[in-house]
Amino acid sequence: MDTHRKTERLMQEQSEYLTLSDIELAGKSVLVRVDLNSPMDPRGVILDDMRFRSHLSTLRELSECRVVLLAHQSRPGKRDFTTMEPHARLLSRLLGKRVVYVDDIFGSHARSSIERMQDGDVLLLENVRFYSEETLKRSAEEHATTHMVRRLAPYFDVFVNDAFSVCHRPHLSVIGFTPLLPSVAGKVVERELHYLGKGVQSDTPVLFVLGGAKAEDSLKVMENILGRNPKSRILTAGLVANLLLHARGIDLGAPNVEVLRSTGLLEYAEQAAELLQQHGGRIELPVDFGVDRDGERENVRVEELPVPYLIKDIGIETMATFSERIESAQVVVMNGPAGVIEEEEYKVGTFELLKAATKAGCSLIGGGHISAAVDDAGLRHRLTHVSTGGGAAIEFLSGESLPGIEALKRAAQRHRKQR
Ligand code: 3PG
């Protein structure tokens, strides 16, 4: 073996997880976890195809395989918790070949469809979250004993995890196949770990801007970041800002408290209050908001609360002060939009903060719904990295290990032992 190949081999041995190039794939039957979870309008139209596009490089590498895709859309109880049919249509268009949608996950219809596949075929199974055991917090070994894994695993030679954005969830379709099948990281997971790895430096001052609707995730992330990196600071927007203001004893007005109640966030008010007590000096809250007053955007200062109108964005003064901090940051990490970006008038805050991020030393943008705004504002190429992951990216950047990645590492160790 020549020196170059020896070095390459050594690097492979040392890499913690396997990738597509580590395994002979042609003619194999491959199960791929992708993340196609995307914003949808009330008519069921997919509003952002970023995650679909992100998977194309992996799918093209698997063009000589029989490829079965596992994916989810939204969560039970949400308006956009729906079937994967529109996703198969959109993916077919982007991939340039038919992606067959099967309205079943592991029943006889799914299994007979898999049996009939030819090399080069791609099939998308039904929303995995329609199966109640999907989201149970279990170990990979426990998930591996479920009906879903036991029924599906025998049909496959390899499991590919290409769903970086769900790697923070210890869900069945993310980790449950790894104890049974040779398991490798897809191109998306590889790319994300490469870029986001640059942002996990505990001695660098990192400015985090946290917004969006998943406020319970943001609280966890804040606890981690503030505890681990003494030079980090947090700017808050979206529902997490509302929750923190509520926890500070500020009455937001009935419609806004009702949003916190109906999304289950009021349960986190105590945790939010403790966080403010411990790290209040490093957490900044908005000083004003854009509210929806009978269909018109109006600016309301925190001192003017409560108001009987819905808060839908950060206000003008907050945009200015937050932008200044972001522009001068060495590393800025933004996750979650600052307002309701689906509505024209309430995109402004998110756009302004993203524009400011293009001037920061290094800008890492958590994916999820904020990446739609990145494209809308035409800023994708002026930012260092736009992740496909929202929660996953931010958990990784806050120093947490991700169950999906850990499972790939354990699978790689097993694979090497068996050789
Ligand atoms: C995301 O959009 O962040 C991922 O698809 C995970 O979705 P979840 O937060 O509903 O688990």
UniProtKB/TrEMBL annotation:
ATP binds at residues 342, 367-370. It is an enzyme of class 2 (transferase). Its main location: cytoplasm. InterPro entries: Phosphoglycerate_kinase, Phosphoglycerate_kinase_N, Phosphoglycerate_kinase_sf. The keyword Kinase applies. Pathway: Carbohydrate degradation; glycolysis; pyruvate from D-glyceraldehyde 3-phosphate: step 2/5. GO terms for molecular function: ADP binding; ATP binding; phosphoglycerate kinase activity. (2R)-3-phosphoglycerate binds at residues 51, 129, 169. It catalyses: (2R)-3-phosphoglycerate + ATP = (2R)-3-phospho-glyceroyl phosphate + ADP. One of its GO terms (biological process) is glycolytic process. GO terms for cellular component: cytosol. Substrate binds at residues 35-37, 51, 72-75, 129, 169. Keywords: ATP-binding, Cytoplasm, Glycolysis, Kinase, Nucleotide-binding, Transferase. Its EC number is 2.7.2.3. It is found in: Cytoplasm. Belongs to the phosphoglycerate kinase family. PANTHER family: PHOSPHOGLYCERATE KINASE, PHOSPHOGLYCERATE KINASE 1, CHLOROPLASTIC-RELATED. This is Phosphoglycerate kinase.
